């Protein structure tokens, strides 16, 4: 799957993008609730990826300790959701 990155205008076909897309477009025999959790993880990972790209490549954007704390909390929510569904996979 090829996705155009609107910010940089380049095609994203890396492993991370493929993984996020698979979660967001979750096609599995898992229950509806688990599918929603997988999709939610995909959306949160996409958000984290965009923020990381901004931090790495958009040097004009300021990132402070509050931004870092927000990302840490996002990762904690992602890990929590993974732990919820791990026994079911």
Characterise this structure.
A hairpin with a 4-residue loop joins strand 1 and strand 2 (10-12). This protein has one domain (3-88). It has 89 residues and is mainly alpha-helical. It contains 3 helices and 2 strands, in the order E-E-H-H-H. The chain has helices at residues 15-24, 32-57, 65-85; strands spanning 3-5, 10-12. The relative contact order is 0.13. It is flat and about 45 Å long. Strands 1-2 form a two-stranded antiparallel ribbon.
Keywords:
single chain, 89 residues, mainly alpha, two-stranded antiparallel ribbon, 3 helices, 2 strands
Strand elements, count: 2
Query: What is the end-to-end distance?
Result: 24 Å
**Whole-angstrom Rg:** 15 Å
> Helix count, per DSSP?
3
Report the structural category: mainly alpha
Name the overall outline: flat
Q: What order do the SSEs take from the amino end to the carboxyl end, as H and E?
A: EEHHH
Oligomer state equals single chain
> Helix share of residues?
55-70%
Strand order of the largest sheet: 1-2
Low-confidence stretches: none
- Main sheet, how many strands, which sense, barrel? 2 strands, antiparallel
Whole-number mean pLDDT: 83
Strand residue percentage: 5-15%
Number of domains: 1
């Amino acid at each position: 799957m090829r996705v155009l990155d609107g910010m940089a205008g380049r095609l994203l076909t890396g492993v991370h993008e493929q993984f996020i897309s698979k979660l967001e477009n979750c096609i599995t025999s898992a229950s509806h609730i688990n599918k929603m959790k997988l999709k939610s993880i995909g959306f949160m990972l996409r958000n984290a990826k965009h923020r990381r790209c901004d931090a790495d490549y958009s040097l004009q954007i300021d990132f402070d300790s509050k931004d870092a704390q927000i990302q840490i909390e996002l990762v904690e929510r992602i890990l929590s959701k993974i732990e919820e569904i791990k026994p079911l996979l």
